[in-house]
């Protein structure tokens, strides 16, 4: 999609790219429009977001609803200014571990995804503004707790491996 076309679609700080049959995101062109803090990519054919998408740190509001996303990029948490995220109606099962870094997130809709049980339970129904706000709080807390647990498990595994290494070294001596 040419930059001129994107610039033409910019209305204040809102860029509406919904219902364009997009199969990929024009990240380079979007990066050239830092004024576009509200991005609507809903109702497209997006299956994946490129890793470079995470460089769009100027985004405050992002609508990715009704696409075909099965996962978000590993470094999605780098979108540190994100406050509003709509992921309704995708094929998401999990969220990336970095999701817990979205500290400014105040609104989240995960409805109509194939979420694993822990996420589904914490996401709730999100049928109105209050429920979507609560969803953001609960999911951030859940992902933060999950990240801490995974980090702890990683440290335990590292110590175990170091113990095995030193055990093998002493057997060689």
UniProtKB/TrEMBL annotation:
One Pfam family in the UniProt entry: LRR_8
Taxonomic path: Eukaryota, Metazoa, Spiralia, Lophotrochozoa, Mollusca
Protein name: Leucine-rich repeat-containing protein 59
UniProt keyword list: Leucine-rich repeat, Repeat
Family matches, as PROSITE patterns: LRR
Matches recorded under InterPro entries: Leu-rich_rpt, Leu-rich_rpt_typical-subtyp, LRR_dom_sf, LRR_domain-containing
Any one GO cellular component localisation term in the record: cytoplasm
